[in-house]
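User: Is it possible to get a 3D structure for a protein together with its bound compound? The compound here is NDP. I've pasted both below.
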Amino acid sequence: MTPFSNRITKLFNIDYPIIQAGMIWASGWRLASAVSNAGGLGIIGSGSMYPDVLREHIRKCKAATNRPFGINVPLLYPDIDKHIEIIIEEGVQLVFTSAGNPKTWTNILKEKGITVVHVVSSSKFARKSEEAGCDAVVAEGFEAGGHNGREETTTLVLIPSVVDAVKVPVIAAGGIATGRQMLAAMVLGAEGVQMGSRFVASEEASSHINFKNVVVNSREGDTQLTLKQLTPVRLMKNEFFKQVQEAEQKGATVEELNALLGRARAKKGMFEGDLAEGELEIGQVSALLDSILPAGDIVKNVWKEFTDGLANPVKKF
Ligand code: NDP
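Assistant: Yes, that's possible. Here is the predicted structure of the complex:
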Protein backbone atom coordinates (compact mmCIF):
# COMPACT_ATOMS: atom_id res chain seq x y z
CA MET A 1 0.00 0.00 0.00
CA THR A 2 1.42 3.38 -1.01
CA PRO A 3 2.04 5.76 1.89
CA PHE A 4 -0.10 8.90 1.86
CA SER A 5 1.10 12.42 2.52
CA ASN A 6 -0.83 15.23 4.18
CA ARG A 7 -0.36 17.47 7.24
CA ILE A 8 -1.32 14.67 9.64
CA THR A 9 1.00 11.99 8.21
CA LYS A 10 3.82 14.58 8.19
CA LEU A 11 3.08 15.77 11.74
CA PHE A 12 3.24 12.23 13.15
CA ASN A 13 5.64 10.74 10.57
CA ILE A 14 3.23 7.90 9.74
CA ASP A 15 2.17 6.21 6.47
CA TYR A 16 -1.64 6.49 6.74
CA PRO A 17 -3.68 9.10 8.68
CA ILE A 18 -5.35 6.40 10.79
CA ILE A 19 -5.06 6.90 14.53
CA GLN A 20 -6.03 4.41 17.21
CA ALA A 21 -7.71 6.18 20.14
CA GLY A 22 -6.12 5.93 23.57
CA MET A 23 -8.74 4.04 25.57
CA ILE A 24 -8.78 3.02 29.21
CA TRP A 25 -8.39 -0.74 29.77
CA ALA A 26 -8.07 -1.44 26.03
CA SER A 27 -4.99 0.23 24.59
CA GLY A 28 -1.72 -0.87 26.09
CA TRP A 29 1.62 -1.40 24.33
CA ARG A 30 0.46 -4.47 22.36
CA LEU A 31 -2.31 -2.60 20.55
CA ALA A 32 -0.37 0.66 20.16
CA SER A 33 2.71 -1.03 18.69
CA ALA A 34 0.63 -3.21 16.33
CA VAL A 35 -1.14 -0.14 14.91
CA SER A 36 2.12 1.80 14.58
CA ASN A 37 3.86 -1.16 12.91
CA ALA A 38 1.03 -1.23 10.35
CA GLY A 39 1.69 2.41 9.41
CA GLY A 40 -1.00 4.09 11.52
CA LEU A 41 -0.52 5.84 14.85
CA GLY A 42 -0.89 3.69 17.96
CA ILE A 43 -1.72 5.36 21.25
CA ILE A 44 -1.30 4.05 24.78
CA GLY A 45 -4.33 4.97 26.94
CA SER A 46 -2.79 6.08 30.23
CA GLY A 47 -6.08 6.83 32.08
CA SER A 48 -6.30 3.35 33.62
CA MET A 49 -2.57 2.98 34.34
CA TYR A 50 -0.73 3.70 37.58
CA PRO A 51 2.48 5.65 36.84
CA ASP A 52 4.82 2.61 37.06
CA VAL A 53 2.47 0.69 34.73
CA LEU A 54 2.56 3.54 32.22
CA ARG A 55 6.38 3.53 32.26
CA GLU A 56 6.41 -0.23 31.65
CA HIS A 57 4.00 0.12 28.70
CA ILE A 58 6.06 2.91 27.14
CA ARG A 59 9.23 0.81 27.40
CA LYS A 60 7.54 -2.29 25.97
CA CYS A 61 6.06 -0.23 23.13
CA LYS A 62 9.49 1.18 22.27
CA ALA A 63 10.87 -2.38 22.16
CA ALA A 64 7.98 -3.59 19.96
CA THR A 65 8.09 -0.84 17.31
CA ASN A 66 10.56 1.64 15.87
CA ARG A 67 7.64 3.67 14.48
CA PRO A 68 6.15 6.72 16.27
CA PHE A 69 3.47 6.12 18.90
CA GLY A 70 1.67 8.43 21.33
CA ILE A 71 0.16 8.56 24.80
CA ASN A 72 -3.39 9.69 25.60
CA VAL A 73 -3.58 11.59 28.87
CA PRO A 74 -7.08 12.33 30.23
CA LEU A 75 -6.56 15.60 32.10
CA LEU A 76 -8.84 14.37 34.90
CA TYR A 77 -6.32 11.69 35.85
CA PRO A 78 -5.51 12.00 39.58
CA ASP A 79 -1.70 11.60 39.28
CA ILE A 80 -1.31 13.56 36.07
CA ASP A 81 1.95 15.26 37.18
CA LYS A 82 3.60 11.86 37.50
CA HIS A 83 2.32 10.76 34.07
CA ILE A 84 3.67 13.92 32.43
CA GLU A 85 7.03 13.47 34.19
CA ILE A 86 7.31 9.88 32.91
CA ILE A 87 6.30 10.87 29.36
CA ILE A 88 9.07 13.49 29.33
CA GLU A 89 11.66 11.20 30.97
CA GLU A 90 10.93 8.38 28.52
CA GLY A 91 11.28 10.70 25.51
CA VAL A 92 7.75 10.17 24.16
CA GLN A 93 7.24 12.47 21.15
CA LEU A 94 3.43 12.61 20.81
CA VAL A 95 0.77 13.33 23.45
CA PHE A 96 -3.00 13.42 22.97
CA THR A 97 -4.73 15.20 25.87
CA SER A 98 -8.47 14.96 26.56
CA ALA A 99 -11.18 15.78 29.08
CA GLY A 100 -9.82 19.08 30.42
CA ASN A 101 -8.36 22.50 29.64
CA PRO A 102 -5.67 22.36 26.92
CA LYS A 103 -3.91 25.40 28.45
CA THR A 104 -2.80 23.47 31.53
CA TRP A 105 -0.14 21.18 30.03
CA THR A 106 0.41 22.10 26.38
CA ASN A 107 3.20 24.65 26.97
CA ILE A 108 5.09 22.39 29.33
CA LEU A 109 4.98 19.52 26.84
CA LYS A 110 5.82 21.69 23.85
CA GLU A 111 8.84 23.18 25.64
CA LYS A 112 10.18 19.63 25.67
CA GLY A 113 9.64 19.33 21.90
CA ILE A 114 6.56 17.12 22.23
CA THR A 115 3.77 17.31 19.63
CA VAL A 116 0.46 17.95 21.42
CA VAL A 117 -3.04 17.16 20.16
CA HIS A 118 -6.20 17.89 22.14
CA VAL A 119 -9.53 16.08 21.85
CA VAL A 120 -12.52 18.45 21.54
CA SER A 121 -16.27 18.17 21.08
CA SER A 122 -16.99 21.74 19.89
CA SER A 123 -15.53 24.52 17.72
CA LYS A 124 -15.12 26.65 20.86
CA PHE A 125 -12.77 24.13 22.44
CA ALA A 126 -11.00 23.61 19.11
CA ARG A 127 -10.18 27.34 19.03
CA LYS A 128 -9.04 27.20 22.69
CA SER A 129 -6.75 24.29 21.81
CA GLU A 130 -5.25 26.18 18.89
CA GLU A 131 -4.71 29.24 21.12
CA ALA A 132 -3.04 27.00 23.69
CA GLY A 133 -0.51 25.94 21.02
CA CYS A 134 -1.80 22.47 20.12
CA ASP A 135 -0.47 21.10 16.83
CA ALA A 136 -3.77 19.49 15.80
CA VAL A 137 -7.18 18.68 17.26
CA VAL A 138 -9.28 15.56 17.36
CA ALA A 139 -12.92 16.58 16.80
CA GLU A 140 -14.96 13.86 18.44
CA GLY A 141 -18.70 13.69 17.81
CA PHE A 142 -21.69 12.45 19.80
CA GLU A 143 -21.42 8.91 18.38
CA ALA A 144 -18.15 8.29 20.28
CA GLY A 145 -17.81 5.83 23.14
CA GLY A 146 -16.70 6.73 26.65
CA HIS A 147 -16.34 10.36 27.71
CA ASN A 148 -18.40 12.64 25.52
CA GLY A 149 -19.26 16.32 25.03
CA ARG A 150 -22.26 17.95 26.71
CA GLU A 151 -23.56 19.59 23.54
CA GLU A 152 -24.19 16.30 21.74
CA THR A 153 -22.94 17.56 18.36
CA THR A 154 -22.71 14.73 15.85
CA THR A 155 -19.56 14.05 13.84
CA LEU A 156 -21.27 15.03 10.56
CA VAL A 157 -21.94 18.53 11.95
CA LEU A 158 -18.85 18.88 14.14
CA ILE A 159 -16.17 18.21 11.51
CA PRO A 160 -17.02 21.00 9.04
CA SER A 161 -17.58 23.43 11.96
CA VAL A 162 -14.19 22.68 13.51
CA VAL A 163 -12.43 22.69 10.12
CA ASP A 164 -13.78 26.22 9.58
CA ALA A 165 -12.87 27.34 13.10
CA VAL A 166 -9.14 26.46 13.19
CA LYS A 167 -6.07 26.43 10.95
CA VAL A 168 -4.41 23.40 12.56
CA PRO A 169 -5.25 19.99 11.03
CA VAL A 170 -8.40 18.26 12.25
CA ILE A 171 -8.67 14.55 12.99
CA ALA A 172 -12.25 13.23 12.89
CA ALA A 173 -13.51 10.85 15.56
CA GLY A 174 -16.81 9.43 16.75
CA GLY A 175 -18.69 6.87 14.68
CA ILE A 176 -15.81 5.95 12.36
CA ALA A 177 -14.73 2.33 11.83
CA THR A 178 -14.64 1.80 8.06
CA GLY A 179 -12.81 3.20 5.05
CA ARG A 180 -15.96 4.73 3.58
CA GLN A 181 -16.68 6.50 6.86
CA MET A 182 -13.09 7.74 6.79
CA LEU A 183 -13.65 8.99 3.25
CA ALA A 184 -16.79 10.88 4.36
CA ALA A 185 -14.83 12.53 7.19
CA MET A 186 -12.00 13.51 4.83
CA VAL A 187 -14.50 14.95 2.31
CA LEU A 188 -15.75 17.15 5.16
CA GLY A 189 -12.22 18.50 5.63
CA ALA A 190 -10.66 16.20 8.23
CA GLU A 191 -7.06 15.19 7.50
CA GLY A 192 -7.12 11.98 9.51
CA VAL A 193 -9.39 9.79 11.58
CA GLN A 194 -9.19 8.45 15.12
CA MET A 195 -10.99 5.17 15.80
CA GLY A 196 -11.66 3.65 19.20
CA SER A 197 -14.43 1.04 19.06
CA ARG A 198 -12.97 -0.60 15.93
CA PHE A 199 -9.70 -1.22 17.82
CA VAL A 200 -11.45 -2.48 20.97
CA ALA A 201 -12.54 -5.38 18.75
CA SER A 202 -8.94 -6.26 17.89
CA GLU A 203 -6.84 -9.20 18.97
CA GLU A 204 -4.24 -6.97 20.62
CA ALA A 205 -6.65 -4.85 22.72
CA SER A 206 -6.22 -5.59 26.41
CA SER A 207 -9.96 -5.45 27.06
CA HIS A 208 -11.66 -8.65 28.25
CA ILE A 209 -12.82 -11.12 25.59
CA ASN A 210 -16.38 -10.95 27.02
CA PHE A 211 -16.42 -7.22 26.28
CA LYS A 212 -14.99 -7.70 22.78
CA ASN A 213 -17.69 -10.30 22.05
CA VAL A 214 -20.45 -7.96 23.23
CA VAL A 215 -19.05 -5.25 20.97
CA VAL A 216 -19.05 -7.42 17.83
CA ASN A 217 -22.52 -8.83 18.61
CA SER A 218 -24.16 -5.48 19.36
CA ARG A 219 -26.81 -3.88 17.19
CA GLU A 220 -27.89 -0.36 16.27
CA GLY A 221 -29.41 1.33 19.33
CA ASP A 222 -27.46 -0.76 21.87
CA THR A 223 -25.48 2.23 23.25
CA GLN A 224 -26.63 5.46 24.87
CA LEU A 225 -25.12 8.58 26.38
CA THR A 226 -25.75 8.59 30.13
CA LEU A 227 -24.57 10.00 33.49
CA LYS A 228 -24.94 13.52 32.12
CA GLN A 229 -25.10 14.98 35.65
CA LEU A 230 -21.59 13.62 36.33
CA THR A 231 -19.44 13.23 33.19
CA PRO A 232 -21.45 12.30 30.08
CA VAL A 233 -20.36 8.85 28.92
CA ARG A 234 -21.63 6.55 26.16
CA LEU A 235 -22.23 3.03 27.44
CA MET A 236 -23.56 -0.26 26.22
CA LYS A 237 -27.08 -0.72 27.64
CA ASN A 238 -26.41 -3.47 30.18
CA GLU A 239 -27.70 -4.12 33.71
CA PHE A 240 -25.55 -1.36 35.22
CA PHE A 241 -26.80 1.10 32.57
CA LYS A 242 -30.41 0.19 33.51
CA GLN A 243 -29.66 0.85 37.19
CA VAL A 244 -28.39 4.33 36.25
CA GLN A 245 -31.49 4.99 34.12
CA GLU A 246 -33.82 3.95 36.95
CA ALA A 247 -31.95 6.09 39.47
CA GLU A 248 -32.08 9.10 37.13
CA GLN A 249 -35.82 8.59 36.50
CA LYS A 250 -36.36 8.66 40.27
CA GLY A 251 -34.49 11.99 40.39
CA ALA A 252 -31.20 10.75 41.91
CA THR A 253 -28.84 13.47 43.11
CA VAL A 254 -25.21 13.77 41.99
CA GLU A 255 -24.14 12.19 45.31
CA GLU A 256 -26.51 9.25 44.79
CA LEU A 257 -25.28 8.72 41.23
CA ASN A 258 -21.68 8.83 42.40
CA ALA A 259 -22.50 6.26 45.06
CA LEU A 260 -24.17 4.00 42.48
CA LEU A 261 -21.18 4.36 40.13
CA GLY A 262 -18.76 3.53 42.92
CA ARG A 263 -15.12 2.93 42.05
CA ALA A 264 -13.51 0.99 39.20
CA ARG A 265 -16.77 0.16 37.35
CA ALA A 266 -14.97 0.61 34.05
CA LYS A 267 -12.27 -1.87 35.06
CA LYS A 268 -14.95 -4.34 36.21
CA GLY A 269 -16.72 -4.24 32.86
CA MET A 270 -14.07 -3.72 30.22
CA PHE A 271 -11.03 -5.40 31.82
CA GLU A 272 -12.53 -8.04 34.13
CA GLY A 273 -15.42 -8.87 31.78
CA ASP A 274 -18.34 -8.44 34.19
CA LEU A 275 -20.96 -7.68 31.54
CA ALA A 276 -23.82 -7.09 33.97
CA GLU A 277 -22.32 -4.91 36.72
CA GLY A 278 -19.45 -3.24 34.85
CA GLU A 279 -19.35 0.01 32.89
CA LEU A 280 -19.01 -0.85 29.16
CA GLU A 281 -17.77 2.25 27.30
CA ILE A 282 -18.20 1.90 23.54
CA GLY A 283 -19.31 3.94 20.54
CA GLN A 284 -22.42 3.71 18.37
CA VAL A 285 -20.31 2.30 15.55
CA SER A 286 -19.98 -0.99 17.45
CA ALA A 287 -23.24 -1.87 15.67
CA LEU A 288 -21.29 -2.09 12.38
CA LEU A 289 -18.58 -4.41 13.71
CA ASP A 290 -18.86 -8.16 13.39
CA SER A 291 -15.38 -9.56 13.94
CA ILE A 292 -12.35 -9.33 16.20
CA LEU A 293 -9.37 -8.75 13.91
CA PRO A 294 -5.60 -8.27 14.22
CA ALA A 295 -5.00 -4.51 14.59
CA GLY A 296 -2.69 -4.44 11.55
CA ASP A 297 -5.48 -5.91 9.38
CA ILE A 298 -7.85 -3.19 10.63
CA VAL A 299 -5.43 -0.49 9.45
CA LYS A 300 -4.97 -2.23 6.06
CA ASN A 301 -8.71 -2.88 5.52
CA VAL A 302 -9.71 0.68 6.41
CA TRP A 303 -7.02 2.13 4.17
CA LYS A 304 -7.96 -0.15 1.23
CA GLU A 305 -11.65 0.70 1.56
CA PHE A 306 -10.74 4.39 1.78
CA THR A 307 -8.59 4.33 -1.39
CA ASP A 308 -11.14 2.21 -3.30
CA GLY A 309 -13.83 4.66 -2.23
CA LEU A 310 -11.72 7.61 -3.32
CA ALA A 311 -11.61 6.15 -6.85
CA ASN A 312 -15.38 5.56 -6.87
CA PRO A 313 -16.92 7.68 -4.11
CA VAL A 314 -20.64 7.51 -4.93
CA LYS A 315 -22.29 4.09 -4.93
CA LYS A 316 -24.26 3.38 -8.10
CA PHE A 317 -27.38 1.25 -7.79
P1 NDP B 1 -12.57 5.33 39.09
O1 NDP B 1 -12.30 6.43 40.02
O2 NDP B 1 -13.88 4.61 39.13
O3 NDP B 1 -11.45 4.21 39.29
C1 NDP B 1 -10.10 4.51 39.11
C2 NDP B 1 -9.57 3.38 38.22
O4 NDP B 1 -8.35 3.82 37.64
C3 NDP B 1 -9.30 2.12 39.02
O5 NDP B 1 -9.75 1.01 38.28
C4 NDP B 1 -7.78 2.14 39.19
O6 NDP B 1 -7.20 0.85 39.08
C5 NDP B 1 -7.29 2.98 38.00
N1 NDP B 1 -6.14 3.84 38.32
C6 NDP B 1 -5.05 3.97 37.55
N2 NDP B 1 -4.22 4.85 38.07
C7 NDP B 1 -4.78 5.33 39.21
C8 NDP B 1 -4.39 6.29 40.19
N3 NDP B 1 -3.22 6.93 40.12
N4 NDP B 1 -5.21 6.53 41.23
C9 NDP B 1 -6.41 5.89 41.32
N5 NDP B 1 -6.82 4.96 40.42
C10 NDP B 1 -6.03 4.70 39.37
O7 NDP B 1 -12.29 5.96 37.63
P2 NDP B 1 -12.61 5.44 36.14
O8 NDP B 1 -12.26 4.02 35.99
O9 NDP B 1 -13.98 5.85 35.71
O10 NDP B 1 -11.63 6.36 35.30
C11 NDP B 1 -10.21 6.28 35.48
C12 NDP B 1 -9.52 7.33 34.63
O11 NDP B 1 -9.79 7.14 33.26
C13 NDP B 1 -9.89 8.77 34.93
O12 NDP B 1 -8.71 9.53 34.93
C14 NDP B 1 -10.78 9.18 33.77
O13 NDP B 1 -10.69 10.51 33.49
C15 NDP B 1 -10.23 8.33 32.66
N6 NDP B 1 -11.22 7.99 31.66
C16 NDP B 1 -10.93 8.24 30.35
C17 NDP B 1 -11.83 7.94 29.36
C18 NDP B 1 -11.51 8.24 27.95
O14 NDP B 1 -12.43 8.23 27.14
N7 NDP B 1 -10.25 8.49 27.57
C19 NDP B 1 -13.12 7.34 29.65
C20 NDP B 1 -13.34 7.10 31.04
C21 NDP B 1 -12.41 7.41 31.99
P3 NDP B 1 -7.33 -0.23 40.29
O15 NDP B 1 -8.78 -0.66 40.28
O16 NDP B 1 -6.41 -1.31 39.83
O17 NDP B 1 -6.90 0.46 41.55
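The mean pLDDT is 97. The chain has 14 helices and eleven strands.
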